[in-house]
């Protein structure tokens, strides 16, 4: 028996975030759920859960609400979750922003409550056709507010905080008016909740990884609340367990408040659910008597309704001492015993590194001493991590951050080419190739999971819905520049570097891919600033760029299989086609298998699925080499991850997070080992010059073709220039596949093939070293100058942000 057996619950904004989690939690407790949202495509995923009916509804449209009410005979609980966050002070809030926010955050609740709680008076709609909580003499209304409201003033949330304060007032009024008729009205005021919208905004920060770490470090529990935890509170309020609580403000707050701009994205939050016995964070409000009898304020006097609200909020931190630039709390942390903060973190990291080395040394002995293989791997890994951290600290205002992968690449390069260090850092070539192939399998898995035909949000954003909206231009942009750069590089490699045609196209496809590690964060920063949003430039580049990468990887694997085939040209072509077919077929079969195994009812489902998708991907990459089909492994990995991800639908987000952690672990291996493969002594100046020439000419051709591909697509001249320049950066894909040809050549023990492979690797190395920083700077400088900044968000975009995204509301700072 569930806690909500037989109850009929109607809720808004149910497609994702807190609304989706609440709908699922209600259904699991036995309720019959009517889930509404404006976004039909995302709402469809919710309809597969037993006990959940879906309805497309715009909560700002009175007619749609009334039509829905006529379809439903009875409900027990109404949950108003829809909301939108406007960022800015009152000076940055236009009338359109004010009207839209108040319309969605407040007026929609007014319409929903008034429609589903009708007053029997002349001129109202026929009550017999509407939901009649009053007639039932029972009912439950749960509204979503925020800590950023009358509870707490928050910077850059003027209209949002105003709207949420109004929601609290509306909740109080409804509770006071109808409690004697059996109607309960409650309000939830969360702090920060981990949802897709919050993750997107963190990714849009100049240094997403550091922003997330800094953000989590400010959380008392070391993490954010989850949508599922907030859903538990919804279940509690919807149940009959609180029938005597007339009004409850459940506030997730934290004591360590920081109101500075750098504290974004959180102020006044505690992560996790609140124990209901904590009086300091729960308000019991009686409409007749005011706050609970006997409650005392911080001054010891009896509380009024307003002082109860203020006194039950977290107290402000003490002000810094006069003339001091460092708050007293910060000084205490710095000089605390035992240490805290940066000092403690430094000691912990050093101890961690020493402990890892000591454990490995105690097992392997000489292998973990200078000159040993494991010592070299650990030494390179830790210095690659340090190199990435150093580049992460390089911040230029208004510009995208320099990618950390550059620091990792240069760390490996310096280790290889510094005489004293290179003497005792020796890494076995087979180990190096194996570690890079593991990283390749992981990044291909992320790419496959990121391909989402339903357009849902993913960690690696590949929004195929953009293809439908932007139609032909997105397809042209996905295929034209990649193929033109590949063809140009192949011809130049044949003429300048004297590579065979197969190897020329291998080199071409290595260069043909853009870097998602540079392009996507840069586009998210521009998108957050409103640049190019009205014409969809950031979305176009992210969607087409992702398809561009898939095309380059597919072409590379096909040509790789042909290059290592012995026989006639026709035989090599047919073998290349065969390897493509084998990779697609094997990936499809394996993907279908892990869609259903493990099944939905198993424990630790996300971890088991992550194990299978990563394990099978690694087996595909290594197994394809073992069985003589080197071109099939990458395709198999892409297809199996895509097929499995489509079957997992929204549930794959947890798998993507785990895969992302695996990528963060192996990323330093990939870029550090790529850098360590390049030796200055083995490079001839003329070879480097020719490689740079191939790279430069191919890039110029790409820019020209890109400009032509976006012509006649509604963009002005400046926007065409920006789109053409935005695909300069090359990094992740080049590192992932740039060394694969060399590794395969070494297995064949053919010196000539190894030379070809080294040429490909050299071009990939130079491409990363030259284009990644230049491309990031070009995007950051050109974006605000060439793209139009939207004055206000369009209604369509804002409603899209609203659907199920009250998580935005849960991040008040």
Report on this structure.
This protein is an alpha/beta fold and 813 residues long. Among the domains are: 8-118 and 130-238, NAD(P)-binding Rossmann-like Domain (Rossmann fold), CATH 3.40.50.720; 360-563 and 663-786, Up-down Bundle (Na+/H+ antiporter like fold). It contains 32 helices and 13 strands. Strands 3-2-1-4-5-6-9-10-11 form a nine-stranded mixed β-sheet, with helices on both faces. It has a two-stranded parallel sheet with strand order 7-8. Helix 1 (17-28) links the parallel strand 1 (8-11) and strand 2. Helix 1 (17-28) crosses helix 9, helix 4 (95-116) packs parallel to helix 6 (158-178) and helix 26 crosses helix 30. Mean pLDDT is 78; it is low at 119-132, 246-329, 455-467 and 792-813. Keywords: Cytoplasm, Lipid metabolism, Membrane, NAD, Oxidoreductase, Transmembrane, Transmembrane helix. Pathway: Siderophore biosynthesis; Amino-acid metabolism. Homotetramer. Its main location: cytoplasm.
Outline:
The chain crosses the membrane at residues 342-363, 375-396, 402-421, 473-497, 503-528, 540-564, 576-597, 609-626, 661-681, 687-710, 762-782. The chain is an alpha/beta fold.
Helix count, DSSP H or I runs of 4 or more residues: 32
Q: Hey, roughly how much beta strand do the residues contain?
A: 5-15%
Percent of residues in helices: 55-70%
Q: What's the CATH class of the domain at 360-563 and 663-786, please?
A: Mainly Alpha
Mean pLDDT: 78
CATH topology of the domain at 360-563 and 663-786: Na+/H+ antiporter like fold
Unreliable stretches: 119-132, 246-329, 455-467, 792-813
Radius of gyration: 29 Å
Main sheet makeup: 9 strands, mixed
Intertermini distance: 41 Å
Strand tally is 13
Shape: globular
The class by helix and strand makeup works out as: alpha/beta
Named at the architecture level, the CATH assignment of the domain at 360-563 and 663-786 is: Up-down Bundle
């Amino acid at each position: 028996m569930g806690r909500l057996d037989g109850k009929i619950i109607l809720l808004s904004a149910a497609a994702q975030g807190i609304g989706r989690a609440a709908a699922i939690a209600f259904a699991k407790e036995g309720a019959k759920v009517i889930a509404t949202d404006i976004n039909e495509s995302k709402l469809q995923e919710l309809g597969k859960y037993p006990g959940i009916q879906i309805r497309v509804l715009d909560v700002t449209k009175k007619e749609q609400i009334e039509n829905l009410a006529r379809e439903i005979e009875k409900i027990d609980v109404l949950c108003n979750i829809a909301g939108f966050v406007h960022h800015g002070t009152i000076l940055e809030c236009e009338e359109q922003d004010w009207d839209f926010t108040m319309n969605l955050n407040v007026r929609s609740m007014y319409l929903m409550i008034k429609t589903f709680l009708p007053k029997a008076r002349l001129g109202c709609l026929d009550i017999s056709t509407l939901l009649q909580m009053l007639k039932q003499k029972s009912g439950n209304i749960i509204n979503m507010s925020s800590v950023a409201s009358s509870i707490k003033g928050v910077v850059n949330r003027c209209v949002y905080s105003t709207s949420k304060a109004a929601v609290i007032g509306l909740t109080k009024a409804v509770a006071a008016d109808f409690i004697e008729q059996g109607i309960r009205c409650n309000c939830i005021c969360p702090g920060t909740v981990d949802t897709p919208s919050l993750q997107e905004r963190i990714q849009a920060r100049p240094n997403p990884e550091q922003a997330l770490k800094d953000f989590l470090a400010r959380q008392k529990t070391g993490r954010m609340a989850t949508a599922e935890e907030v859903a538990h509170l919804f279940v509690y309020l919807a149940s009959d367990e609180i029938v005597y609580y007339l009004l409850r403000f459940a506030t997730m707050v934290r004591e360590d408040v920081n109101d500075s701009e750098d504290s974004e994205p959180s102020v006044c939050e505690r992560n996790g659910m609140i124990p209901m016995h904590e009086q300091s964070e729960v308000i019991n409000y009686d409409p007749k008597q005011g706050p609970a009898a006997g409650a005392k304020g911080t001054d010891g006097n009896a509380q009024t309704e307003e002082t109860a609200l203020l006194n039950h909020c977290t107290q402000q931190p003490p002000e810094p001492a006069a003339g001091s630039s460092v708050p007293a709390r910060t000084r205490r942390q710095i000089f605390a015993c035992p240490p805290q903060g940066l000092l403690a973190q430094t000691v912990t990291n050093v101890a961690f590194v020493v402990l890892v080395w000591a454990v490995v040394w105690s097992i392997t002995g000489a292998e973990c001493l200078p000159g040993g293989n494991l010592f070299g791997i650990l030494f390179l890994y830790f210095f690659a991590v340090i190199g990435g951290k150093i580049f992460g600290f390089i911040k230029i205002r208004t510009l995208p951050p320099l990618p950390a992968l550059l620091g990792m690449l240069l760390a490996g390069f310096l280790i290889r080419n510094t005489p004293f260090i290179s003497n005792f850092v020796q890494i076995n070539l087979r180990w190096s190739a194996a570690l890079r192939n593991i990283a390749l399998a992981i990044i291909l898995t992320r790419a496959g999971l990121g391909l989402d035909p339903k357009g849902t949000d993913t960690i690696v954003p590949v929004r195929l819905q953009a293809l439908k909206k932007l139609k032909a231009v997105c397809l042209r942009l996905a295929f034209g520049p990649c193929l033109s750069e590949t063809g140009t590089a192949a011809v130049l490699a044949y003429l300048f570097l004297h590579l065979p045609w197969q190897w020329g196209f291998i080199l071409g496809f290595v260069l043909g891919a853009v870097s998602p590690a540079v392009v996507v964060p840069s586009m998210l920063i521009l998108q957050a600033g409103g640049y190019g949003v009205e014409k969809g430039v950031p979305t176009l580049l992210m969607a087409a760029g992702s398809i561009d990468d898939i095309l380059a990887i597919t072409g590379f694997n096909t040509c790789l299989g042909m290059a290592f085939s012995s026989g006639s040209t026709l035989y090599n072509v047919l073998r290349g086609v065969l390897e493509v077919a084998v990779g697609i077929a094997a990936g499809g079969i394996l993907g279908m298998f892990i869609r259903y195994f493990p099944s939905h009812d198993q424990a630790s489902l996300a971890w088991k699925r992550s194990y299978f998708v990563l394990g099978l991907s690694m087996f595909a990459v290594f197994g394809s080499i073992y069985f003589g089909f080197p071109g099939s492994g990458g395709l198999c990995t892409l297809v199996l991850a895509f097929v499995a991800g489509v079957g997992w639908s929204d549930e794959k987000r947890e798998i993507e997070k785990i895969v992302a952690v695996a990528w963060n672990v192996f990323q330093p291996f990939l870029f550090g080992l790529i850098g360590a493969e390049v030796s200055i002594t083995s490079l001839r100046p003329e070879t480097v010059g020719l490689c740079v020439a191939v790279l430069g000419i191919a890039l110029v051709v790409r820019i020209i073709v890109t400009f032509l591909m976006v012509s006649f697509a509604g963009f002005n001249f400046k926007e065409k220039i920006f789109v053409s320049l935005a695909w300069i950066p090359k990094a992740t894909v080049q590192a992932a596949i740039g060394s694969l040809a060399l590794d395969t050549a070494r297995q064949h023990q053919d010196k000539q093939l190894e030379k070809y492979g080294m040429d490909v690797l050299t071009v990939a190395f130079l491409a990363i070293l030259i284009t990644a920083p230049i491309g990031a700077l070009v995007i950051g400088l050109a974006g605000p100058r060439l793209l139009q900044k939207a004055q206000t968000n369009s209604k369509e975009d804002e409603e899209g942000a609203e659907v199920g995204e009250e998580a935005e509301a849960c991040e008040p700072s």
